[in-house]
Write a structure and sequence with these properties.
It is a single chain. By secondary structure, the protein is of the alpha/beta class. It has a domain of about 50 residues. It contains four helices and three strands. The chain is elongated and about 40 Å long.
């Protein structure tokens, strides 16, 4: 991953929680890596059945959910990990 060299390179997102769709590979995983470096709790949602393993690579506190986020049952499950993360999720 290319190091972040923005003017505010030392900013922190510690304690925040992000749900990243497509987070188990590619650009989504690279985004998750960046957020993990900034202290973010992660929920990686992906069609990839190894989503949880990908999340754990970035820290034991992170969670991966396998499934299609366009499916109502999968989407409904995205709010449940907040109990494991002890975090409050805000949806925009």
């Amino acid at each position: 991953m290319i190091p972040y060299r923005g003017a505010d390179a030392d900013f922190s997102l510690k304690g925040k929680t992000a749900i990243i769709t497509g987070g188990a590979a590619g650009i989504g995983f690279a985004t998750a890596e960046f957020f993990a470096e900034k202290g973010v709790n992660l929920v990686l949602a992906d069609l990839n059945e190894n989503a949880d393993a990908a999340a754990k690579k970035l820290g034991a506190r992170n969670i991966g959910l396998s499934g299609n986020v366009c499916d109502a049952r999968t989407a409904a499950g995205l709010s449940k990990p907040e109990r494991k993360l002890s975090a409050r999720l805000t949806f925009w």
